[in-house]
Structure to design on (215 residues):
């Protein structure tokens, strides 16, 4: 039951935010009592903190695995990241047009004043870890000869990490998931044109980009 409570709480928090979810909402969906939830987690803040911890571990760990994988080119890493985003997007937007938030960190960050200090710190650590993983990926690209030695790995890593950290906002502002996929493709194209060791054909603005555009 503990895992089921966390699963439902995670989804409802993504959809409604911290203030928009009560123990009553979770209990109603699971057909249990609020006392049952209190038994497992105590106050709401503790449940949210637990859910955030699990989410950060899972999402951050998968992103880290993608971006620190050895002998994997930048294109493959971006494609894997887009696929990861697509999974999360589809889970909360099964028809592709609902416009629901699909990142727990993004949704809760919008209510930063409602979070306690531990939760806010967890958000900051998550963002730093995502950036660090992308920076490692850029450093690997230099070490493996995909990017030139003088490539500014820290700046490029932060640039690419921003696609992931703000993916919900990018998809909303650019007309859906296809827009997010195009944004990733444009960032990759910019990095490879500016710092890559291999010449690339013109693609950005032409409607395709290395197979990353989500049709």
């Amino acid at each position: 039951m503990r895992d089921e409570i966390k699963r439902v709480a995670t989804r409802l928090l993504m959809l409604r935010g911290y203030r928009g979810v009560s123990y009553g909402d979770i209990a109603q969906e699971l057909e249990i009592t609020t006392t049952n939830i209190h038994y497992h987690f105590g106050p709401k803040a503790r449940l949210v903190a637990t859910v955030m911890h699990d989410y950060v571990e899972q999402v951050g760990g998968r992103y880290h695995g993608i971006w620190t994988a050895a002998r994997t080119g930048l294109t493959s890493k971006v494609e894997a990241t887009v696929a990861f985003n697509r999974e999360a997007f589809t889970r909360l937007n099964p028809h592709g047009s609902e416009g629901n938030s699909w990142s727990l960190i993004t949704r809760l960050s919008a209510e930063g004043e409602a979070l306690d200090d531990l939760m806010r710190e967890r958000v900051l650590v998550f963002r730093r870890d995502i950036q660090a993983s992308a920076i490692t990926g850029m450093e690997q690209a230099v070490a493996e000869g995909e990017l030139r030695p003088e490539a500014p790995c820290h700046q490029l890593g932060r640039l690419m990490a921003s696609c992931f950290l703000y993916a919900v906002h990018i998809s909303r502002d650019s007309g859906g998931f296809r827009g997010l996929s195009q944004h990733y493709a444009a960032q990759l194209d910019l990095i490879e044109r500016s710092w890559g060791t291999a010449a690339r054909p013109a693609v950005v603005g032409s409607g395709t980009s290395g197979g990353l555009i989500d049709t």
Notes: Residues 202-211 have pLDDT under 50 and may be disordered. DSSP finds ten helices and no strands in the chain. The first helix runs from residue 2 to 16. The domain at 44-195 is CATH 1.10.357.10 (Tetracycline Repressor; domain 2).
